[in-house]
Design goal:
The protein is an alpha+beta fold and 765 residues long. 45% of the residues lie in helices and 24% in strands. Helix 3 (69-81) crosses helix 4 (86-115), helix 7 (143-158) packs antiparallel against helix 8 and helix 7 (143-158) runs parallel beside helix 9 (183-204). Residues 237-244 have low confidence and may be disordered.
Length: 765
Amino acid sequence: MAQKHESQKFFETIFGMAFSIFIFVLFYALISMNGVVLGNDPAVHLEKAQIFLRTGKIPLENLGWAPPLYSIMLAAFISFTGASSIEQMIFLVKAAAVIIDWLLVLSVYLIGVKFFSKKTGVAAAILLLMCVPMYEINLWGGYTTILGLAFMLLLLLYLPSAKDFTHVVITFLAGFSLVLSHQLTTFVIALILPPILLVLLIKSRGTYFKALVALILGGGLAFFLYYFKATIAYVDVLIEHVFLTQKAYVYQIPYVSLNAFMMNFGFILIIALVGIFIAFSTLKAEKHLTCFLILLLSFLVPLVLSQSHMFGLYLPFQWFVYYLMPPMAILAAVACTAIIDQVAAFYLKYKRRWKKIQLQAIILVLIVLASLIFLFRSGVVYGKIMEASVYYSTTDLKAYDAGVWLRNNFQEEATVVVTEVPGFWFQLFSGKTVIAQTSPTVERNVIAEAVLDLTYEVEHPLTLIRVYDMTKGDVSDESYVSINHVWYMVSYSAADGNFISYNVDGVEKRTQLSNFNRETIFDDAASTKKLLIRYFNDEISIKQTIFIQNDRYPINVTWAVSPLKSSVSNVSLYLSTFFDLQFSFEKAYVPGVLSWENPWSRPTYIHGNDWAVVNFTRSTLTDNYIGFYDAKNEVIFALSFSELPDWGNVGVLASNQIDAVRVQYNFDRISVNQTASFTYQILTFSKNSQPEMMRLSEVKSLFTAKLATPFEVRSRDYHEFIKERNIKFIVYDRNKLDTKIIGCRRLEVIYSNDRYVIFKIKSNF
């Protein structure tokens, strides 16, 4: 008997070692798929660790991003190993990550063993590896979340046993470490623990009081050391900010739908729901209902939080999927082991009654069915890993080569602006300060956006205007509306969609504005911001002036045409405004022609089944205002003409989407030293940013409304950013490089490989 026990223990040890090695190899290979480290967050963690090593201090700027425990742990690894090169530090980042992954898998295994059996623990660890979020969180570098999850599970593991001194100390350390690992983990555990602690105190008649004190002291001490001083004065604002005003999280709602859950967990979700009832029955029979309460709350709390948008709360919904993962794997393991036990019992019961071939056939069918389920799930997980590895590959070896080249060839201190790829890793490669482009949906980096595109921006509460110093492709300017605090492009003007025709010295000429010379002047000194775009050649000058005021929402646009050498006649200026097709403008108001209806209802011209247009002229318009409405996104775009256009049309596609509005102004003759001009106003906004939006018939009144209290108008000039931030280099991902940038006289290409281009900003910029 003793020999059998020793053999079993030896086998378990070998299996544990082999499984641990598998975990290390799997996740090390996973996060190294791009040749460096996947995700942008690991670069920030490494940079924070280096700051801690240099200064011995933790900057409070970390407060809104991630607590310092992981960075301190990484700094300790660097200090202990004496790592000095970037290659060695990258290895330590990956080593620390796989250790944390192993700790999470171990925590899931230990809970399965302690609450149920070793079979359940092993099954839970295996099922955890079949959850897509387990890989996704590693691919974007969410190591602090994994660390927080591991400490949360260890706390839940040892809390029911925290009667003796050893377990009390473990509870204290787990609480302390958890608070310093991740804010969201602290928030989740703060909701899970109160009912559990209350039950433990009542059930034990106060014997768990020491554990409660240890937990409060550990977590409270960590909070006091890191958060208290910075947050105590802003508690009321903080609560409102965290729960009610972060509307940008709305984009995450599709990621917590039923379809998303099935993709993330597959059959594990279904059998986990069954596992809840099996776990209740099992633990009730063993009189361990406290353990069931721990499992149930650790499952229900993140599940409810992931759906909190239904209650009007704005939280990082998608992140709670990671907190669902461990309890779901454990509950699914409970169901799996129960099914296996039932199949084994069935076999033992009927192996003598049934024919051997019949029983073997049933068992074989069950094995094949289970294998197919696991095989299909493995295929889904592998596919999502490959998809996410491309999406989260924010750097690569080509970026490393470019960064090292810049470090070796330009030693001076400088700031570099980079595209989303190579991201923040470029700071570590180049040794320069880096401002990296980020996803506008998550958090828009206005400096990076302005410098990379060489743009000017003016923003008021309803609308953002972007004007390119050099056209982006052929796009000259863009209009954006705010939806849930995220700016979305609603319309744009393309230089190749605007053209002028005129007669000079008896010769008829017609040319697109994209063929003219172009210069931009930005005047943002006064409360009224002014953007001037001038198109010119040897014969004629065309000026577009955009005015943004701080007491009116509409944006004034004036066009002025002036001959330079001799008079011009038969002048026609044709202007196009294109709508971004992410919006569905299907209703148009063209007074005298359309009354908030789709152009397909009254087309002037139809081009097969592809598109149609509705024409209007100065004589057919019965008012000076036209409007367009997207009912799905509740967005309005409207124009008010100070001088009615001579001609215009509204274009519509087969999908019923209005894709453009075009206007044309005609002038019989313009003499030298004379200017012909016209003005119109643009008004565009979403109901999300203007909740009191009136009926469509009343939108026109906004063009003349003057606000009693002026609002803030923010302006951004890429020239100012370059000067203020000492920006000397720009790094572009070739996949996002506008080829017109290469011809910019103010930029010089100094390095290029098949993925990245480095520009040096000339000193006379």
